[in-house]
Amino acid sequence: MSLKPKVSDRDHIQGNNSADLTIVEYGDYQCPHCGAAHPILKEMMAELGSQIRFVFRNFPLSEMHEYARPAALAAEAAALQGKFWEMHDAIYDNQQILSTRFFMDLAEQLNLDVDQFKSDMQTESLEEKVEGDFESGMMSGVNGTPTFFVNGQKFDGGAEGLVQMLHEN
């Protein structure tokens, strides 16, 4: 399966935008497997950041994870204030204590305008962004999290396999 749509400026991108290697993760902030992959991906970015472009897309499994969608909305609301990756990391680093109150506390800790953040979390445009990511995952054959794509092709080896593949190349 291939990635649909291709990476664009609508995506959250970290690393080198002109790198030869693009890794896209479809993730759920409350998924334990995504939580386990997070430190591996952080380490990979620290080690190879200039050689790769890393993209995160929301794929909240809302039926199983009560806070998956609110967490995605919190990250998107933080993005509007230029703090997507900070919120993204803080949510994964504290995955076991997710709650609506916790997202507000994080917004404060990240020095966001909390009233704006709270208001943004309710907007239809952020709901549409999260839903758009989810739908792109469905079109790309994502059926669980985390799911990775390497240069547009689905990769089945998980985060550890990803790191192993990168070290071999």
What would a concise description of this structure say?
By secondary structure, the chain is of the alpha+beta class. The protein is built from seven helices and five strands.
Q: In percent, how much strand structure appears in the residues? A: 5-15%
Distance between the termini: 22 Å
Shape: globular
Look at the helices and sheets and give the structural class.
alpha+beta
Radius of gyration: 15 Å
Helix content: 40-55%
Number of E-state strands: 5
The order of strands across the largest sheet is 1-3-2-4-5
Uncertain segments of ≥5 residues (pLDDT<50)? none
Largest sheet: 5 strands, mixed
Question: Your description of this structure?
Answer:
The mean pLDDT is 95. The chain has helices spanning 32-48, 68-79, 84-93, 100-109, 114-121, 124-139, 158-168; strands at residues 12-15, 21-27, 52-58, 147-150, 153-155. The protein starts with 11 loop residues before the first strand and ends with a helix. The radius of gyration is 15 Å and the shape is globular. It is of the alpha+beta class. Strands 1-3-2-4-5 form a 5-stranded mixed sheet. It is built from 7 helices and 5 strands; from the N terminus they run ββαβαααααββα. 50% of the residues lie in helices and 15% in strands. α1 (32-48) packs parallel to α7 and α2 packs across α5 (114-121). The longest helix is centred in the first third of the chain and has 17 residues, at 32-48.
